[in-house]
Amino acid sequence: MNYARFSQVRFGTGLSPRFAGAASPEELMDSLQNDAMVRRFPTIGNAEAAAIATAYAQANKNETKVAGGADARKKAEAVLMNAATRATKARIARALEDETGFADRLAQFWASHFSIRAGGQNMAILTSAFHEDAIRANQRTRFADLLRAATLHPAMLLYLDQNASTGPNSPLAVTRRRKGQGSPGLNENHARELLELHSMGVGSGYTQQDVRQLAELMTGLGINAKREFDFNKNRAEPGAETVLGAEYGGGRPPRLAEFVAFLEDLSVRPETARFICTKLVRHFCTDDPPSKLLNEMIARFRDTGGELVPVYEVMVGHAQSRETFAQKVRQPQDLLIASLRALRIGGDRIMALEGKELWRLYVRPLTRMGQNPQGAPQPEGWPESAMSWLTPQLLAARINWAMGQPAKLLDQLPDPREFASQVIAGPTRDRVIDMAARAESRSDGIGIVLASPQFNRR
Amino acid sequence: MNMDRRRFLNAALGAACSIAAVPAVTPMSFASVPGEKRFVAIVLRGAMDGLDVVQPYGDPMLRKLRRTISLGPENGAIDLDGFNALHPALAPLMPMWRAGELGFAQAVSTPYRDKRSHFDGQDILEAGTANGRTADGRQADGWLNRLLPLIPGAAFETGYAVGTDELAILQGDAPYSSWAPRTQMSLSSQAQILLSQLYEPDAPFHSAAETALRINAEEAAARMGRPDDPVSGPVEALAGFAAARLNAETRIAAFSLTGWDTHRGQVRTMVKPMEHLATALQVLKRDLGRNWENTVVMAMTEFGRTVRENGTGGTDHGTGGLMVMSGGAIRGGKVLGAWPGLDESDLYAGRDLKPVMDVRAYAGSAIADLFGLSNSAVEQVIFPGLDLKDRPRLLL
Fold first, then answer.
1. Average pLDDT value for residue range B234-254
2. Sorted alphabetically, which InterPro entries does this protein's record hold (chain A) (predicted)?
3. Which helix or strand (DSSP H or E) is residue B106 part of?
4. Would you call A435 and B195 a contact, using CB atoms and an 8 Å cutoff?
5. In chain A, which among 55-114 make CB contacts under 8 A with chain B?
6. Which CATH number fits the domain B37-184+230-382, given the four candidates 3.40.720, 3.30.2220, 3.40.50, 1.20.120?
7. Is B189 in the A-facing interface, judged by CB distances under 8 Å?
């Protein structure tokens, strides 16, 4: 197994007769800088998403209030759904057309690390923008930049209730209390997840007091009526806060920069370096990270002040990444993309799909395999352990896709033996070729290859 | 909580991850059957209009608030108790009502108020906590998942999530099983043999595939055994599969029924989901056979709908709703709950039926009696913060 085949499976979106892949770790890292497919298949950015979401919310409000309101609402909903579908298709198309797909895999990883779920139409469109402008645009920078972009994104602020958090002594809360309009207060949700899930990791030494103080420091972060990020001084808790032993905030008036200073410090803490590198190794290499690989990545993270590209560089070139090959089970998203790529389905074909076709080919099967494309059900993101993806029901959904879908996609299926030799990597490839050869039909043969443990592992 | 058992199961799961682990863990390995009592939760997604299902025609306000829907016995609804009438689409359930195997609780709700979002409402209903979160602010597990470790002798198949919908009500740390009936793995026997050979050396794949193929074969055999059964729909499949599991090792099953979000033309749009509900309960009773006597079914929705009919012949998101309970183990034939009234001043926020009881009190009371749990176990573990002091008694 040469480096190209190894890296296409382990770090990329899978083997395809269409692509040679990266012959060396250096080439793989170079491919990360190539944005040709991002330009060819544009998705949706913050400004467009905010405008669409705002228009839809307005139409919803007017539905029963103005003449023609019902039609206008339908139209606004169609605009929103089309844009969200287009973004989903573009993300698939990029992964199918990129020489390596490494950047697409990284985007999936970070989208799960900063997990949000698109419940409701408004969230669906903001989530598309989150994936593009917060995640994809920042995964080659410092972790501090990525952390800041994800933390301050409207979709995240809504998802983790930060938008509902108000300093108990903020001007807004004081006024409300005086007028007898309730007593708005803190919501700790985002503060807790920022420490527990996004940076230091659970049990890494912060206290409930830190969470509380951080929640106070975070008051004021929110969105405005146009669904853009907004720092609302009116909601900010006055006075300084002490988080993880250092003092932040206390400016008059309160400023966003005070919280950003905290994020900078948080992003380079040793606990953060360890947590982020562990998650990278657990996602890309093995559930049980080998210490040499892990420690070298942590060291690189710390030496560079949290630059992400050098950290990836250690991972993709390390002997222990190679030694742990096939220990991970492909997550459903990864599996479907790799299957489509193996079957030579191109990006233009995906972009031309109607919403219903996309649902049949991709959205419904993914959901049945346990990975709802709207996002993980919990802020923890998608689970890494093989067992979470291999319950009887979820495996049955994988087998059904493999046995049934390829014949619906292609008028003529490839020879199963040749197909297996092209799209399977690793020492037991011949076993798959052998079984595929003994299938009683082409479509069974292709199904056996795509449902094999060899194809489902990476 | 029986942590030792949980640790043991998790260890067993962990072992299955290692390729070297043989033999593969199968659900049957732990089959010490935990009692005979059975609980089925049906999540009615979309917010069911309880005032249309059980129509309080005895309150004269109902006719003033609704013009085309919920028209009472004069329009075919079936009188239940001189005050409430059952929607005609649920007529097939009347034998159960008369036998005391069907009951309702009107004006129930979760603690969720005012925002009326399906997603949040369902999260809170399925988490069973006041705001969908745990005391320290995390997203809570499903309350049926927290129930599993409290059942002595519980194993993988004790809890069963049925269908393709995500069932947050069962999700969490305690192991449970899941399967979507009619997954129908259409594999030629040759393909099955070849795949099995590929899976054989890979423990997690091998174990999952063997179980999937076994369930699939059982389902196929069941279909073969009823050749004259007309082609049944997806709801028969859901309820029939749940009943089959409950007749075997399963004691807690959950599935969901959708289609309740009736903003427009409710006269028409409400019929299909109600037929589904009727079918589900009838199939459960039919297929559970003698076990029906030991079964409680509770169908719950995230919230009710507005008491006023809207401008498009439907209803919008509200607050107080209806719980449907059924099963041979319940004391049915009653509409429970003090009637809050429909006068302007009786309504919640001037628009919704005012909740008079937490839906969790009914569920908590039923599972406490069914599985012999103490009030405090329910109040602390399953529904934290709930007070069961004056709980309604629902079981025979």
1. 93
2. DUF1800
3. strand B102-109
4. yes
5. 64, 70
6. 3.40.720
7. no
